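Hi everyone,

Forwarding the result from last night's run.
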Amino acid sequence: MKNIENSTYTQLNTAKEKLGFFENKCAVQEHEIEELKAKVSYYEEQFRLSQAKRFGSSSEKTNPDQLSIFNEAEKESRENIEEPILEEITYKRKSGRNKKKQSFDDLPVETIEYRLDESEMICPECNHPLHEMSKEVRKELKIIPAQVKVVEHVRYVYTCRQCEKENTKTPVITAKMPKPVLPGSFVSPSLLAFIMDKKYAQAMPLYRQEKQFINFGIDISRQNMANWVLHGSNTWLKLLYDRMHVFLLKESVLNADETPMQVLDEPGRSAKSKSYMWLYATGINSDKQIFLYEYQP
C-alpha cells in the first residue's frame, strides 16, 4: 500500500514539473510571438512609408525659395492682413507624452496618499487595531499639456453721481490697464513668446507652428504670426537688444564671425546678391554672456 502511495506521489510531482516546464515554455513562446508580431508591424510600416515616399506626393516639399530661420517672418508677413477675431477661435487640449527624468528634486511635488479605511484597520490574526509601521513611495513624472485659455481684460469706468446732478462738468475716471502687445490684436505676451521661442530656440518654422495650432483647435495663419514676430522684435525686443549692445561695447575682448547668405525679395537688390549675418559674442571669461546677431547687406 505504501509503495502505491509513493508511486502516486512521485507521478504527481513529475506531472507538476512537466506542467510547470510546459507553462514556462508556452510563456516564452508567447513572448517571442509578440516580439515577432511587433517586428512584422514595424517592417510593414517602414515598407509602406518607403513606397509612399517613392511613389506618392510629399506633404512637405522643399521649396526652391526656402527661407532661412532669420527672414521667414519678413517673407510671410502681410501688412494688409486682418487680425483674426478671438470669438471665432475654439480650442481643445491635447495630451502630452511623459518623459523620463532621473531626479525630481527641482520640481514641485504633488503627493497622493493611499490609506486603509477604518473598517480595514483591524489585524486579521488577533482583531486588534493596526498602526502605521512604514510607507512606500513611488515617484512619477507628470506632464501637464499646454493649456490655451482666453483672458478678458475688463476695465471699469467711473463717474460721480453728485457732479452729474449739481455740476456742469462731470469727471470720468478710467481704471488703469496694461497696454496690449499689439493694439487691435488678441496676441498676448505669452503667445508671442511661445511663437518666437518655437521658431528661434527650437527651429520650428511658422508654417509648422500653424499646423501645430490647428491640432490645438486654433486657426492662426503664418502671416499673422509673422506680423506679430516682426512687431515684437522691432517694438519690444529692440530695447533689450540695444541695451545688451551697450554692455557688449564695454567688453575688452569680443568674438565676431560672419556668415555669407542670400536674402530673397530684398527691395533694390537681386536674388543673387551676397549679404552677411554677423554674430558678436563676449569672451569666455566675461561675467556677461551676450550674443548678438547683426544683418549687413
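DSSP finds six helices and five strands in the chain.

Cheers,
N.
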